[in-house]
Amino acid sequence: MSSNQTERKFEGWAAMDENAVKGGMKWTEYEPKEFAEDDVELEIQYCGICGSDLHTMSNGWGTTKGMYPQVVGHEIVGKVVRVGKDVKHLKEGDVAGVGAQCDSCLECVNCKNGEENYCSKGLTGTYGGKFSRTSAGSKSYGGYANYWRGPAHFTVLIPEGVDPAEAAPMMCGGTTVFTPLKQYGAGTTAKDVGIVGIGGLGHFAVLFAAAMGANVTAISHSHKKDEDAKKLGAKQVIVTGDDTKAAFKGHERSLDLIIVSSNAPDMPFDAYLSLLRPHGHLVIVGVAEEGSLPNVHPFNLIMSNVHISGSAIGSVKGMEECLKFAGDNNIKAWVKRYPMKEANEAVKSMNEGEARYRYVLVNEEHGGKLNA
Ligand SMILES: NC(=O)c1ccc[n+]([C@@H]2O[C@H](COP(=O)([O-])OP(=O)(O)OC[C@H]3O[C@@H](n4cnc5c(N)ncnc54)[C@H](OP(=O)(O)O)[C@@H]3O)[C@@H](O)[C@H]2O)c1
Ligand SMILES: [Zn+2]
Ligand SMILES: [Zn+2]
What we know:
alpha/beta, Quinone Oxidoreductase, Chain A, domain 1, Rossmann fold, 6-stranded parallel β-sheet, 10 helices, 17 strands, globular, binds NADP nicotinamide-adenine-dinucleotide phosphate, binds zinc ion, zinc ion binding, oxidoreductase activity, acting on the CH-OH group of donors, NAD or NADP as acceptor, ADH-like_C, metal-binding, oxidoreductase
């Protein structure tokens, strides 16, 4: 062990190959980055299971080949147990969270503008990345684990008034939809908002958009979530089923903003665009495993003056704003808690589409609570 390492033994659920997503992760010890004076160390209490964790473990995006073992998880909340000399905003004993990004250059124009998620030099993912600013070349490891170590800049204090177990999935899933909802004026300039895909991200999007004052339409591929979507705050639910065109009949040009959080491989973008009013925005956050978008006919953009864009996670400020918004508006995330030791069961169930709507892994020995 090098001198700047602690006695803590870093262990987590490692994906050794593509079968991990079916419940084949192995509990493994690993070497974290070298501790730097702008780092913190967390005793992990909670870690949400994000759809991206599954795509990574399964190599569904083709980005994981040669990158196993992977300890995924980027919706982390835990107790601060070690603080570098240069860290100003956290102290030992605080409860803090980290999302999908754990480092960037901190110097480029985007980093300086508080958009570290669009760093010109690229971001370091909380797992599956490589550090370059400090401990250059070390691999980043995520939160299905006992400890997390990394740059404090990317950690935020969990405010009083937000249950830390519910704050965990807000670190990625919540912030990822909160950011474009805010950017495109949900509830203000965008009164009518559609959310495609009612999964972890989608359920946050419905909760947040409704709390922002928008009329929310949930767009789901089956009837299974009709009732839940209404309870989350949707005014109406459109079920696309096998015939999206038929499902959208009568709803053309009725929405100002659509957030697509589904990761279905065959999404009918032309049909989604038909729902937008002129000047409307369709923002993609879900990433299908096949990766590319279907052809969109130019007339469907030209004749309606609609916009297609994407949005990546959120900035540090975005995470803080999301947590504050959740606290101020008493947003209750629908989470199911699993003991960390049952991570394989949770991942398998999520992979089978059973989550309603976010699973959160709990380390009870670090103060995480299995019951709300
Ligand atoms: N842009 C970013 O920065 C960012 C950040 C986090 C996650 N993501 C991505 O966002 C996507 C959603 O993540 P999540 O955590 O919300 O996942 P999730 O909980 O599994 O939700 C995905 C939803 O997609 C819909 N879906 C429709 N057809 C599907 C199909 N054939 N297979 C699977 N799902 C289908 C389902 O909703 P219905 O049943 O309502 O149709 C499902 O609940 C993932 O691709 C993830 O990687 C992106
Ligand atoms: Zn995520
Ligand atoms: Zn940068």
